[in-house]
């Protein structure tokens, strides 16, 4: 647990309300992971959040750290809320609360009365700062059974962090495995494992982090002790904290090790995935299919961004994994990684986008298929955006016959943002992201304004595209001309012959 986590408990009056259906996309995600889900109920009272919609999320793709929506909590005027979502195993959930991000663990079939902290808005300067990380707070849970489990995890995390900080330098400098053992035994005496399999595994992988410091020159022994005989825990943050530390830039280590020599030669010679997997399986560390495949997919993902390895080779291997990996979780993750590394490249399909416009109508990017779209992301309280909106208005007028201007506003509240656009006579199609972080994530929005040009086939023609004042009009005319020429070459006019007379 990082240093900025702290436990917050209040004594808010809670009331059970009506249940909401879980989001369909999460049901699909549960199916992809291959388990039978059970319903989790959420209720509470938080007057500070009256009128807001809070989104409960979880990390759906552990290597990519992508957030998946579980459900939305609509807070009524009295501050009451209720919701439900489906999970198949113990899952860490988070809620964006403005300045904070609240966290709690949910178990299938449980009811959770949450105690939310007083609302503290996130300053606009922080909302689109790519380096800003909201403070994570551990939410109070007032339902007895659920409270006991969350307090058990939270109390252990507080003590683990204290011990880790106290002994990390000694463990690292002295390679002192006996000390790591004593620290773990001390934590075990304070926090007995009992029979809870999740808590037992959670402590196992926290111990892995301590031993990793002492065993940094004994990587094989560390992997064997903590990973080789353990299933991949797809929903356990403690597992992924340790896994990512252990297997980061794995090829750099494995290619230089005696055990990885044959694997390195096969990789460099262009061997297919099946052959590489079989070679790796002969290593006693990686006989488990789930671990071997997860390590390989992490290694390929890291390798892609080093600039050392051929991108096409890595794409080909990942594509093979989507079809040939033994574990369906691996196949699913391989598809997501392919999407991630190829996302937003010029020539690729633009991510889908759907949001409400100024009239409350749902507008989709697909509605503009057959036209060039100048997609842009703005914030009406941002000085640079205000300035460029004026320039964008000129583009919308001058190129209205050939180009659709589509603006997505990321202001916290939609109506004041729409009012600003109408007041300034910005009459092109304007949408509001509606608190859906997926829209901003899909287009990698770290700062604003941001622009993309999408061609009539739905592909990214310029990614990113220049701003209106950066010769966009000239670039657009060039792209449009090339597009038309390519279409003409693909479908040439039929030559007339004597048989057409």
* Annotation, overall tally of beta strands: 17
Q: Give the helix/strand class.
A: alpha/beta
- Rg on CA atoms, Å: 26 Å
Number of helices: 17
Please indicate the count of domains.
Answer: 3
Beta strand %: 15-25%
Largest sheet: 7 strands, mixed
- The averaged pLDDT comes out at 88
Shape: globular
Give a quick set of tags describing it.
six-stranded mixed beta sheet; single chain; Glutaredoxin; disordered N terminus
Describe this protein's structure.
- The structure is a single chain.
- The protein is an alpha/beta fold and 501 residues long.
- The chain has 3 domains: 6-142, no CATH class; 143-247, no CATH class; 354-488, Glutaredoxin, CATH 3.40.30.
- Helix content is 43%, strand content 19%.
- The strands form 3 sheets. It has a 7-stranded mixed beta sheet.
- A hairpin with a 4-residue loop joins β11 (354-357) and β12.
- α3 (144-174) runs parallel beside α5 and α4 (177-190) packs antiparallel against α5 (197-214).
- The chain starts with 5 loop residues before the first strand and ends in an 11-residue tail after the last helix.
- The chain crosses the membrane at residues 12-35.
- It holds the Pfam family AhpC-TSA.
């Amino acid at each position: 647990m990082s240093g900025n986590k702290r436990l917050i408990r209040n004594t808010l009056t809670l009331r059970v309300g009506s249940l909401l259906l879980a989001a369909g996309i999460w049901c699909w995600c549960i199916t992809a992971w291959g388990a039978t889900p059970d319903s989790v109920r959420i209720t509470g009272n938080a007057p500070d959040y009256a009128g807001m919609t809070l989104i409960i999320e979880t990390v759906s793709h552990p290597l990519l750290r992508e957030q998946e929506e579980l459900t939305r909590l609509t807070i009524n005027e009295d501050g009451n809320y209720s919701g439900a979502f489906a999970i198949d195993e113990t899952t860490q959930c988070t809620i964006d609360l403005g300045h904070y991000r609240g966290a709690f663990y949910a178990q299938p079939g449980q009811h959770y009365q949450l105690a939310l902290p007083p609302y503290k808005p996130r300053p606009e300067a922080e909302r689109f700062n790519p380096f800003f990380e909201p403070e994570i707070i551990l939410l109070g849970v007032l339902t007895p059974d659920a409270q006991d489990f969350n307090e058990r995890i939270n109390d252990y995390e507080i003590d683990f962090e204290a011990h880790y900080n106290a002994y990390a330098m000694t463990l690292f400098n002295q390679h002192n495995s006996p000390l790591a053992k004593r620290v773990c035994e001390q934590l075990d005496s304070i926090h007995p494992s009992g029979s809870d399999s999740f808590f037992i595994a959670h402590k196992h992988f926290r111990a892995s982090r301590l031993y990793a410091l002492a065993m940094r020159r004994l990587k094989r022994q560390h992997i064997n002790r903590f990973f080789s005989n353990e299933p991949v825990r797809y929903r356990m943050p403690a597992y992924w904290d340790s896994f990512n530390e252990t297997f980061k830039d794995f090829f750099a280590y494995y290619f230089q090790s005696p055990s990885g020599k044959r694997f390195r030669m096969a990789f460099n010679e262009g061997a297919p995935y099946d052959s590489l997997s079989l070679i790796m399986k002969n290593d006693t560390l990686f006989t488990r299919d789930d671990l071997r495949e997860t390590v390989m997919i992490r290694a390929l993902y890291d390798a892609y961004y080093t600039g050392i390895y051929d991108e096409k080779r890595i794409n080909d291997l990942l594509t093979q994994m989507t079809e040939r990996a033994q574990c369906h979780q691996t196949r699913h993750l391989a598809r997501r990684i392919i999407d991630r590394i190829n996302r937003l490249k010029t020539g690729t399909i633009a991510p889908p986008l759907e949001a409400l416009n100024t009239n409350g109508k749902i507008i989709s990017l697909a509605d503009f298929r057959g036209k060039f779209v100048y997609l842009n992301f703005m914030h009406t309280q941002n000085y640079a955006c205000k300035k460029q909106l004026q320039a964008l208005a000129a583009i919308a007028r001058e190129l209205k016959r050939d180009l659709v201007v589509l603006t997505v506003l990321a202001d916290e509240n939609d109506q004041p943002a729409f009012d600003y656009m109408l007041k300034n006579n910005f009459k092109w199609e304007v949408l509001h992201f509606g608190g859906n972080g997926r829209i901003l994530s899909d287009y990698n929005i770290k700062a604003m304004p941001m622009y993309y040009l999408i061609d009539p086939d739905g592909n990214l023609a310029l990614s990113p595209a220049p701003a209106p004042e950066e010769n966009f009009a000239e670039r657009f005319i060039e792209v449009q001309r090339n597009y038309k020429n390519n279409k003409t070459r693909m479908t040439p006019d039929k030559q007339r012959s004597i048989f057409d007379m």
